[in-house]
Each structure stands twice: as C-alpha cells, then as structure tokens.
Amino acid sequence: MSLTLEDRAASPVTTGRTGYRHASLTVRGKDRPGIVAAVGSVLGEHGANIVSLDQYSDDPQGGAFFQRTVFGLDHLGSALPAVGEDLRRRLDQDFELEFTLRDLSVPKRVAIFASKSDHCLLDLLWRHRRGQLPVTVAMVISNHPDAAEEVRSFGIPFFHVPSSGPDKSAAEAEHLRLLEGNVDFVVLARYMQILSADLIGRLGVPIINIHHSFLPAFVGAGPYAKAKERGVKLVGATAHYVTEHLDEGPIIEQDVVRVSHADTAAELQRRGADVERAVLTRAVQWHAEDRVIRHGNHTIVFA
Amino acid sequence: MSLTLEDRAASPVTTGRTGYRHASLTVRGKDRPGIVAAVGSVLGEHGANIVSLDQYSDDPQGGAFFQRTVFGLDHLGSALPAVGEDLRRRLDQDFELEFTLRDLSVPKRVAIFASKSDHCLLDLLWRHRRGQLPVTVAMVISNHPDAAEEVRSFGIPFFHVPSSGPDKSAAEAEHLRLLEGNVDFVVLARYMQILSADLIGRLGVPIINIHHSFLPAFVGAGPYAKAKERGVKLVGATAHYVTEHLDEGPIIEQDVVRVSHADTAAELQRRGADVERAVLTRAVQWHAEDRVIRHGNHTIVFA
Amino acid sequence: MSLTLEDRAASPVTTGRTGYRHASLTVRGKDRPGIVAAVGSVLGEHGANIVSLDQYSDDPQGGAFFQRTVFGLDHLGSALPAVGEDLRRRLDQDFELEFTLRDLSVPKRVAIFASKSDHCLLDLLWRHRRGQLPVTVAMVISNHPDAAEEVRSFGIPFFHVPSSGPDKSAAEAEHLRLLEGNVDFVVLARYMQILSADLIGRLGVPIINIHHSFLPAFVGAGPYAKAKERGVKLVGATAHYVTEHLDEGPIIEQDVVRVSHADTAAELQRRGADVERAVLTRAVQWHAEDRVIRHGNHTIVFA
Amino acid sequence: MSLTLEDRAASPVTTGRTGYRHASLTVRGKDRPGIVAAVGSVLGEHGANIVSLDQYSDDPQGGAFFQRTVFGLDHLGSALPAVGEDLRRRLDQDFELEFTLRDLSVPKRVAIFASKSDHCLLDLLWRHRRGQLPVTVAMVISNHPDAAEEVRSFGIPFFHVPSSGPDKSAAEAEHLRLLEGNVDFVVLARYMQILSADLIGRLGVPIINIHHSFLPAFVGAGPYAKAKERGVKLVGATAHYVTEHLDEGPIIEQDVVRVSHADTAAELQRRGADVERAVLTRAVQWHAEDRVIRHGNHTIVFA
C-alpha cells in the first residue's frame, strides 16, 4: 500500500470558507466485498462529509477496484494526516489497496512544454487566467523563443531550452534541473520533440501529451496529411499519458470533428487545432482534479 | 421512509449463475455525513459485493442526496427482504431517507402506447427482441389498428383502443382496465393523444413520453413545421416523465441532429425521427435499470 | 468520354406529377474555364430547370473538376437521350470530361449481403419500407439461413448461399449468377466473408461495405476487442467502396460514438452497431442519389 | 436589381499570385430556367475560372433562387466592374434577380462590441491574429473599460462607450459617429446592451449577435439559470442577425453541448461559453466569406 499525502500551503481562493475545504481520495486495487463500508466508516469517524463518490470494478468477481471520493472536513489541512493514517491502517489490514489522499484546495503544479504551434498552450493559459483550470502553472518551456513575451504577459516564467539534433542530453539535463521538485505533472502542448525514456523515468511525474489524431489512427508525424491522403470524413485528437513507447500510452480523452473532401490538409489542421485544444484542456482539468486513474495501459476517468 | 421491494420470478436469462444475481438500491433524501458508511455497512454485513456506486449531492451543506448502488449477493431472491429490513431500520433511525431496493434480474413490465407513427415503437420492440432492453413488454396499445400484425409478429399482445373526440373517458377506462396491476411503467412512443390528469393519477406508475423537439423550444404540436418556420440549424427530441402539465415534466434525455436550409419540413421530420427513437430508447433503458431518480421537476441520471 | 444513360421504367411513386421528373447529371474531369456555362447552356437549350447544383475543384489551377446537377424536364424519359447526346457533343468538343446522366425517378437496384448480424440489414429494409431509401432492393444474399423469414416478410427475395472454407469459388459463382444484370450496386451489410478480387472485377458494379471501426484505426477483424484493449474513448464505423485491397477502399462516410472505461467489449459492440447502421444508411442513400463521386482512393460527397 | 461592387485596396496576403485574385458572386431572386447558363456564360466571356458554385432553390416550381459562385480572374481589380456591368445587363434583361459581386481579397471591415464577458471577443481577436478570420477588425467598442489593454495589445483600436440607464441616445450617437463609413458589419460578442431600432436602421450594415441559448428556447436574459431550472440535458448557443425584434432575427448557426444534473448553473455557463465562441466564430467567418444569404427571417448558408 502506498500513501501520497500532499498538503502544501492552501490557496485561499479555492477554500469555500475558513477552515472548510475539500479533499479527494482515490483508491485502487483488488476488488473485495466491504471496501465501500471500510472507506465510508473511516471517513465517517472523522466527521467527513462525502460530496461525491464514483466507483468502478472491471470484474465484480475478483477484478480491479477503483474509487474516487471527494469529501469536506473542518480544518482539513490539520486533520488530513490522521485520516490518511487511519485509512492506511484499515486498508492495509483488510484489503490489498493503494490510495492517494489530496487536499483539493492545493492546486497541482504543472510545467507546460510547447514548440512553435501555440494554440494549445494559449488555450491553457487563457483558461487558467479565468480561473477555469485548478492548477498552478509553474513554468512554460519551449524549444523556440517565440512565445516568450506572450507567456510572460500572463505572469508565468518562460524558459527557452533549444533542442535540435539527435543528442538531446544537454537539453534534457536542463529540463530536469528546471523541473525537479517544482512540478506535479507535465503537459506537452504540441511539443514537437520526443522525450527520452531516461528523462521520463527521472522526472517521475505524470506527463500528458496531445496527439493530433484519433489514435491509433495516424500514429507518428504528419497525421493531417495522412488523413487527407486517406480521405477520412472526421479528424480527431487524443490526450494520453506519455510512456517510453511513443503514441502508445494510456488514453485519457479523445474527440473528433467532421471534415469533407473540400477541406485541404491545411484546413484539416486548422479544424483539428480546435479539437486538440478542447481535448487537452479536458484531460488537464480531469488530471488536476484526480479524476483519472491509470490501470495498465488504460485509464478510468470519473468525469 | 418507504420501501419498495420487488421480487417477482427471476428471469433465468439475466442471472449470471445459479443463485447469484444483482440488485439495485437507490437512496434519496436529505444529505448528511455518514450515509455512505451506513449503507455500505448494511450491505457488507449481508456479504453483498458492490458492483457500482454513483452518488450526487446538490449541495454538500444540507442539500439533497442521491445514490444508486448495484450489488451482487448469493441467493439474492431469498436474501433481499432481510437486506431491505436492515436498511429500513438503519436509515430510519439515523437519517431522513427514502430508498428503493430491486432485484435487477426481474425486468420491469412496460406497456407501450403508439399512434400511426411507428418508428419509436418498432425500435423499442426490435431492441427488445435482441436482448438490449431489460424489460418485459406486457402489451402495446394504440388508437389505430395499423400496427397490430407487426406487433403481434414479435409475440407481444396488441390492443386497439380508439380514442377520438373530446371525451376520452371510455378510452381511458379501457386503458386502466388493461394496465392496472400489469405494468411497472408506461411509454408513450409517439402516442398523439393527451392523457388526462385523472388517468395519470389513477395509473400510479411512471409514464415516459418522447416529445419531437428540443424542449422547451417548440412545445405543443407541429414542432418540425415550427422549426422550419424559425430556420433553426438543429432539430432535437426530448424524453421526459409525463405530469399533468403538458410538455413540462422532468426531462430524462435530449439530443439533436444538424439540419440545413435545404431540408424541407418533411425532411426535418425524417431526421428528427432518428433522434426520437435514439433518445426514447436511452430513456427507457435508463429507467428500466433504475438509473433515473426524479427530484422536483428534474432528474438525476446515473448513466 | 463515357456516357451512362439509364432509363428503365419510371416508378410512379417518385414522379412529382405526370410527365415531370428529375434527372441527375454528374460531371468529372480536368478543370477548365467554361464548363459551368457549357453544361448550363446545353441544359438551358432543352428547357431544363436546374433544381440544385454542387461543384468542387481540387485545384482551380488545372486540378480535377466535379459537378452534380439535378434538373427537371417535361417528358424527361423521352427527352433524356437527346440531352445526353448534346452533352456528349459539347463536352467532347471543348473539354476532357466524363459524365453520367440518370433519371432519378428510376431507383437503383441493390443486392444486400448479410451474415448473422442483422442490424444493418434490417435498418436498410425498414427504411426502404418507409420510403426513405430511393432504391429497389432486388435481393438479399446471406451465408446464413437465419434471416430468411424476416427478409421475405418485407416482400424481398432471400437467397442462402453458404460460403465456408478457403475455397469460395462455388459460392462466388452462385453470387455472380444471381447478380449479373440484376443490380446496379451491392451493399455488404456486415457480410463477414471477403469477396475475391475476381468476383469484384466480374461484378463490375460499385460495392459498399460497412466496417465496424473508424478506419484506418483497427483494420481487420475484431475491432471492438481491439478498441477495448487500446482503451479508446470513442468507437466508430466507416462506409467505403470495396476494392481488392481489404479495408483500403475510398471512404464514403464515418461517424463515432462516445464510450467509457465502464463499457465492456460487448457494450462497445452494441453501441457501435447503432453507428454502423446510421453510417451505412447515409452512404447507401447518398450513393443511390448520385451524391458520391469516386476520385482515386477518395470520394467527393455532395451531401 | 441592385449592384454592390466593393473593390477597396487589395490585401496582398490573400492574393494567390500577382494579378490573380478571387471574387464572390451571390445571386438571389425568383427561380427560372436558364439562370445558371446566363451567369456561367457572362463569367465565361470574361475568362473567369469558377472555383466553386453552390445553388439552392426553395421550390423548383417558381420558388426563390440562391447562388454563390467563387471565381478567379486575371487582373480582377480592374476587370470586376465590367463583369458587374455585363451581369447587370444580362440579369436585368431576362430575370428578376439581385446580385452582389465582391473582391474576396478585400477583407470586410468589422467592429466588435463587447461587455464584461470577453471569451467571444478574445477568441475572435486570437483567430484573427492567426490569419484564420478573413476580416479587418476596425475597432472594438465596449461599455466597460476592462478589455482596453488586452485589445490594444492586438494592435486594434479600443473605444470605451459607457451605456447605462434607459436613455441610450448619447451612447448610440457615439456608436454611429465611430462606425459610419468605417465598417461593413458589426458583431455583438456578448454585448449586454440592446441596440435601438433607430441605431440598427441608421447603421445600415448587417449586425451579428451571439445568444447564449439554443433559440427559441430560453429567449431573453439569464438562459443558463433557466436551463438549470428546467433540467435540460444540453445547452446551446445561437448566432443570428439582429433585427428590431429581440432574439428573433434570422439564425445563422447553432450548436449544443451535453450537460448533466451535476452541472451547476455556473458550470452550464462555462460549458456554454465554449459553444458560444465556436458558434460565433463560424457565423462571422461565413458572413465574411459571403456564404450566408438572408431570405425573409431565414438564412441560406453555403458552408
């Protein structure tokens, strides 16, 4: 069993009233009777008020169990460690489960990677400024300097880390130096460089990528040209977690838009860009709210 | 607190293996801490295996609480009364809640009302024959005799109950005689007569209607002509529970389809018909699986 | 230049009023200035009333040109050959174009192939009976006998042609015998056998297939199992013309439906079936109304 | 017959190669045989290369006729007046038609009105900066000063025209002074003030509004609160031309997004905002490209 307890300084913005905040609890492991009652009674003993609860079992007879609970609690910040301790004791004793407990008033810290195309990057920054994305954007990293001024106008640090040629070790060392200890996850917002397996491993935080096609159709580069070539009637986008296997990681969200013979490859790209930003935004929001649970190469999404 | 315990003879088809079946429990009432633990522990004491659990509270601070749980249990048929008894005792004692407990292997019995347009009727019968609708179609009632042969070819009783003129009391008396005690809900599948408030009250079972517009746009008759007249770019359909207030009952499901200036009113109607049957089918399926909870003039849908 | 003039006995049903019917003219070839005026003036000289006109050029500077015109004409049946003759003379003289001229009041004749899954077959027959598909269903051919009674209840001939094992030559000889001269196109409505290149060539009519995935994702067999395995969030269907390259022919229409982690492979299949029948119906209708023009491995669809 | 010939200084950006540009011709009036040939032959005589042609007749027997043609021409700027002259002569002589001829390389000039909500405004400015909206944004006018800095960072003039209280005559006088002669159309991008019939009449240019509901459902103010109250399962947006009858003008485009019981009115508003900006963008683009023809209280959209 693992316990991830995050309780950094709370943002006053997302706290409803003094001392009353919400936490999320995600539980995953082997399905067995009694889990709901066990979790419910621990939360009940602490006076927690369950706001929402979603649960899924991929096979009621010995399958895998997934649960997301959001609850409120007086003096959440100081009370959460004891809740975690009791959950650990109870779930360790009777079940084979992992759980994550997190104070939702503390936004996750994210770094956004971008290249020349900035529609996904700007949509994220824009929604963030409107208070629609519950994250702290710690920094933007790009292999092109173009977006520096725009990003900084949002009050967000911008770092230009050039990355050309086959040897990316210098760039990745710089990435690691900037990111280590500073972010809870990374978003590749149309970042056109491939991260090495080494960097992915050393970062040790979830990485979300937006792929500009309806995966697994049109893996790899140039999907809109391929889509035009194949004469498809819909183009799509896919947000997925990054693994060392390119375009193969667990899918978080997908969507499509209708196109026709009259759309050129450039127009497919423009229509696709709207889908890309919408899909990536949903994936980032769901991840930030602990709505996505990874399981093998799949995701459980309690949207 | 009310207890609705339905346990008619189980359909062998929907029972996974001998003695092991699923039940649904829906709970609604005033939100208070501890409900989840209370429900979970009663189910746990009976050895129930919770398969899925959905929960919603419209205001964590003293709002209304809604929960749908599906669980498996050995010898469900004989065990369910005791589960109901314990739930009643526990929920009565500590909370202000209503609940419904139902053996899901016992399909709800439905009567389908139709008039001349039979696309919704036939789609329901067709899906039912394929095993996609977990209901027993007890009968079809129509104010036109046209569909008799087709309906009976599905092995389903058809009753022609003429209903013209302002005085519908004779027809409604006949409806009551046919339906009373025989059905758990009624579906108006493009039935073009208005049911009187008296009939609705005396039937005492939920009635689902399909309205051929995206309510509240185009209430009343002739919505496709009105949609053409208004030059809308989408036409829709709405499935809702019937109340004595025409076209005003709680909405269960809605959808739309894109149309253009080039579509005539007749073409709007044809495109709309596809949406109508899809929307009605979803509403009937969700109702049959206890996924819809009425609350005031709204619905909570755990789809 | 080729001329395809079809003028079989007109169906009185689709003729608006005596002697007044509609024809479609599709033109394709090298784009050059003056085509619209040339076609327009030939039609004008014959007193034709153009009802709709769609046009597309994939590159205004020397690209390919596509046009679909629908026009009305008094005494269309007897007047059409002269229109065709004049078009041929005019378009031959000044342009490099092919055209097809067809009396729309004469429905195309179609054979539908099916296997055990009958949702696509029945949706086509059902819409046809309602007058929504402007085709004559000449026959249904299946490698399973199951649907015989149902198909014949629509008044349509059913032929059971078994086709198992690697050698399909006997079955295909029977197919050819049944189809030759009797149909204008063929629809594979979830027919689970592969047609040989030889049969495709000898049939010499367009063949429309419905593939149960969003091509090019999940080519080949078992796409819903593959979709579940990959954890996609949408499943789709693709209607395409059949070529000797399996799953590679020109795409006519595609659509998708949203699914979630909670859907089993069987539920993906059930949701997918609704998309399959909708997509196939649109493709068949558009083909029947001469709205689809093949160009290389693509289609131009004037929907 | 009316002739609108616009030929201001061409933007070099949208001109394919020196001297070769595109024009749009929209024709509307009483349908009669021969129109296509007449238009085609005038264009042909001038050596025009027709790039696309769309046509619609609301009744082939004496209905209304609508056509949009896009054509290329060497030295378009100097050649267009003669084309217009010949069209006028020809269409005047034989038909009852109005037409508009416009050099597409000259972007229409637009003024955008906004209030506090800036999601629609910013989406338009953003797409414009990316070269995706073929317009010249002449100015932004708002009754709030908040967006001044942001708008000016796009290099676009911003004018703050306060407009509170029942008497809007001072504000509207200012509007008129700013707009007269400077714009070809106006976009109300969530402008929360009602324009008087007098202002609409004196402006004399098309005005496009975005209404935050699927009209005619939820006309007037507060549609998201009303949608929540009614328990709808979809919320939508409508772009329409403004007439003196509030929320009653010809609809250009509509779309919807799925919502659930779990969405608060604030969340409906946030989801709806995404639909609003998408719908408004499409409407503005179509209007800018002469794809929308008004007819009575409807629109013909050749999208």
Automatic annotation (TrEMBL), chains A, B, C, D:
GO BP, sorted A to Z: 'de novo' IMP biosynthetic process; one-carbon metabolic process
Keywords, comma-separated and alphabetical: Hydrolase, One-carbon metabolism, Purine biosynthesis
Highest rank taxon of the organism: Bacteria
Domain ACT: from-to ranges: 24-102
Keyword Hydrolase belongs to the record: yes
Catalytic activity, as annotated: (6R)-10-formyltetrahydrofolate + H2O = (6S)-5,6,7,8-tetrahydrofolate + formate + H(+)
Gene Ontology molecular-function annotations: formyltetrahydrofolate deformylase activity
Entry-linked SUPFAM superfamilies: ACT-like, Formyltransferase
Active-site residues (renumbered): D247
Keyword ATP-binding set for record: no
Biochemical pathway: Purine metabolism; IMP biosynthesis via de novo pathway; formate from 10-formyl-5,6,7,8-tetrahydrofolate: step 1/1
EC number: 3.5.1.10
Enzyme class at the top of the EC tree: hydrolase
Purpose of the protein: Catalyzes the hydrolysis of 10-formyltetrahydrofolate (formyl-FH4) to formate and tetrahydrofolate (FH4).
Family: Belongs to the PurU family.
Protein name per the record: Formyltetrahydrofolate deformylase
Organism: Streptomyces apricus
